[in-house]
Amino acid sequence: MTTDVTDTEVGTIRSGFLGGGFMAQVHSRAARAAGADTAMLASSSPERARIAAGELGIDRAAMIDEILDGDVDVVHICTPNATHAALALRAIEAGKNVVCEKPLATTFADARRLADAAAARGVVAAVPFVYRYHPMVREARAIVAAGEIGALLTVDCGYLQDWMLRPDDNDWRATSTEGGPSRAFADIGSHLCDLLEFVAGERIVRLTSRTRRVYESRDGQPVANEDAVAIIVELASGALGTLLISQMAAGRKNALTLELHGTDASVRFDQERPEELWVGEREGNRTLFRDPTTAHPGVARFSRVPVGHSQGYQDAFNGFVADVYAAIGGETPDGLPTFEDGARAAQLTEAVLRAAAEERWVDVDASARS
Q1: In terms of pTM, does the model score above 0.90?
Q2: Structural domain span for residue 22
Q3: Left, alpha or beta for 35 (phi > 0: left; psi -120 to 50: alpha)?
């Protein structure tokens, strides 16, 4: 059974939030849009929690233990990367449903453990790979699934940002203690690979990669992970692809692009132009625009506003959280990214880092569970 994200109402769900930064803003807006009671927020200190709760319109500031041991129905984890695994496991063991920011964990073993724990406890556990919730991503997926591009041949995609361009640009994500062993790939490359496998309907089975760390220190602090990654992938069908991921591409703010080439046609999605989907054919090219009346079956539900009124990132996030809450209510929304997908991203992260360190091709076992 699928759920119409535009009609979902979950007024009885009580949501708790760990973390008070940018992602907590996005999560809490989405929870409120889904009709939830945004009950509690904990942050790095009681004072920070009080300020963030007030700014975000959350009922009250709390301590982490109050949220994990209290009466909330779902915990949104929006804290630094290295804290995710321990907090998510505590929430699962307490019987809470969980939405955990990516990376789900900084090792595949920990991510796999979390996915298994969530399944064993029977809770809804989701990771916000929210680009799945752009209507034109779903349209691209439907086009590929319908065989309209033919057999997949090659893939050309990338995810480029510039927020770490200068040597004095710094963030906790660049540290080993909070950010983990990977930054550019774990932070944004994971989104790209999730989108590639989701739209293509098949998995990466082999890859080789190169990473680059441009500055050894930023603003006086040592850098522990990569600024950019170049990857060549082979998919299950034999299709080949190139992926470029960088947080130092001047002028690119959030340039996630995905282009699939088949024997009959190509499709291209550009996250900075989310209302469009380019379709290339031998006889000519065309651009499809978001329109529920002409979309493939199952795609219309992702259109949250009338045609001609642009949808964007927060709309996609709202759709994701609405589907999470629908799943808590017992429904099975199509394409909801779960902890299984979070574990897959952690598996790919380790494969990318290993391929770069050992300068070789690495096989990625799509069925690996440890």
Answers
A1: yes
A2: 14-130
A3: left
